[in-house]
From TrEMBL:
Signal peptide coordinates: none
Protein's recorded name: RNA-binding protein NOB1
CDD domains per UniProt: PIN_Nob1-like
GO CC, one annotated term: preribosome, small subunit precursor
Top-level lineage group: Eukaryota
Region (Disordered): 132-162, 183-216
Entry keywords, A to Z: Hydrolase, Metal-binding, Nuclease, Nucleus, Phosphoprotein, Zinc, Zinc-finger
Gene transcribed to yield this protein: Nob1
Pfam family, one: WRNPLPNID
Bias (Acidic residues): 202-214
Organism: Rhipidura dahli
Length: 420
């Protein structure tokens, strides 16, 4: 397999024990990725890496542009500081080789989706299963109902039927017959079926189809590998790539026009954008930094995948899980709000006031003994407090002879002493 000249590795590439020496000619990473690798086996693999690992930092202006781009695509809340550094380094290497004009700094308005007869919420790419496209074998058309049979259901009941929401999976009976013919085993002759047991035979056939669907067989192994991304084809003409297992990073890389190299088959093939949809008032917003709905003010915003068709129609892909909102905290009443500087109150409204958690005057006046400008004793560069109430009342610190003399105000003192 041809190796890529320049490859940037993420933390997931080191943790998944990917053969990076077989993928890249020159391997790059950022210091934040190395600090994230903490377990002993990954550290040992990193120390014994059979290729040179170059540690570089991206330019600050590229890091700022990548951050703004990830906010536009909606993946910024899912990215860490190390992820943004890896994305910026990939952009920097691509710009050094092909020039800055090869990068896209604005996400595409329209996203092309392959037309499929499946329902949008039908499961796709299930782990361990392969669901090929349905092919109607010749001579197996729909059975014509007899004159005494019941009439077909009206079109209005199509969406309420079970078959619409759960389409039947294709059968692999023909593929098994081909395998039996190849192996040389004689195929048993088909016995003619009477018309009396036609309905029961059809029901048995449907049961066999539903039981045998979705399995990976030697005949559909290649197709399953292509659908799940386990392809043996090497990237041709790719100069810069990024090895990552993070779907948010893969989405940003694909929308920027960069190449993503998979290490375990998990690869995003279509660019998707995300918006926030309120499950209370059903309004949407593209500001991914929002926590509360800007229309109704409730904390009911959820991330929804959005795709745009060729004619500009917006399609939102919802989750099939009915428990979209977390009901945690709705069973028992909220505790009484706490006051003070270190209060830990739940965030209930967008304009709720929180303590600023500022350092105290004593904490700000502490000197660092490891500071090169540290001076023993009273430093002439210490901060002078001139804004607090104690400074306005000319109260000095207790260590200098003012204030209360008791070192521990909580100490128990005997007020009544028994006289002799």
């Amino acid at each position: 397999m041809a190796r890529v000249p320049h490859v940037v590795a993420d933390t997931g590439a080191f943790l998944s024990a990917a053969p990076l020496q077989d993928i890249a000619e020159a391997l790059y990473t950022v210091p934040e990725v190395l600090s994230e690798i903490r377990d002993r086996p990954a550290r040992r693999r990193l120390a014994a890496l059979p290729c040179e690992l170059r540690v570089r930092r991206p330019r600050p202006e590229l890091l700022r542009l990548v951050t703004e781009f990830s906010k536009k695509t909606g993946d910024y809340p899912s990215l860490s500081a190390a992820d943004l550094q890896v994305l910026a380094l990939t952009c920097q290497l691509q710009a050094e080789i092909d020039g800055p004009g090869c990068l896209r700094w604005e996400p595409q308005d329209k996203v092309r989706l392959s037309s499929t007869p499946r329902h949008p919420e039908a499961p796709l790419h299930l782990a361990g299963f392969h669901l090929p496209a349905k092919h109607k074998p010749a001579g197996k058309g729909p059975r014509q109902p007899g004159p005494g049979s019941a009439s077909a259901p009206p079109e209005g009941d199509e969406f309420g039927s079970f078959l619409y929401w759960r389409p039947p999976l294709p059968s692999i009976e023909e593929e098994l017959r081909e395998l039996l013919a190849i192996s040389g085993s004689p195929e048993p002759p088909e016995e003619p079926r009477s018309s009396a047991d036609g309905a029961s035979a059809g029901e048995e056939e449907e049961d066999e189809e539903s039981d045998d669907e979705g399995w990976i067989t030697p005949s559909n192994l290649k197709q399953a590998q292509q659908d799940t991304g386990h392809c043996d084809t090497a990237p041709i003409g790719v100069q810069v790539g990024c090895v990552t297992t993070d779907f948010a990073m893969q989405n940003v890389l694909l929308q920027m026009g960069l190449h993503v190299l998979a290490v375990n088959g998990m690869l995003i093939r279509r660019a998707r954008s995300y918006i926030l949809r309120c499950h209370g008032c059903f309004r949407t917003t593209s500001d991914m930094t929002k926590v509360f709905c800007p229309h109704c003010g409730n904390k009911t915003l959820k991330k929804v995948a959005v795709s745009v068709s060729d004619d500009g129609t917006l399609h939102m892909h919802f989750s099939r899980n009915p428990k979209v909102l977390n009901p945690r905290g709705l069973r028992y009443p909220l505790p009484a709000p706490q006051g003070g500087k270190h209060a830990n109150n739940p965030h209930l409204v967008e304009d709720q006031r929180f303590p600023q958690q500022r350092l105290s005057r004593k904490a700000r006046q502490k000197t660092n003994v490891f500071d090169p400008d540290y001076l023993a004793g009273a430093s002439p560069f210490a901060e002078n407090d001139v804004h607090s109430r104690a400074a306005h009342l000319h109260l000095r610190d207790a260590a200098l002879g003012a204030g209360r003399r008791r070192l521990n105000p909580n100490a128990v003192t005997k007020k009544f002493v028994k006289r002799r």
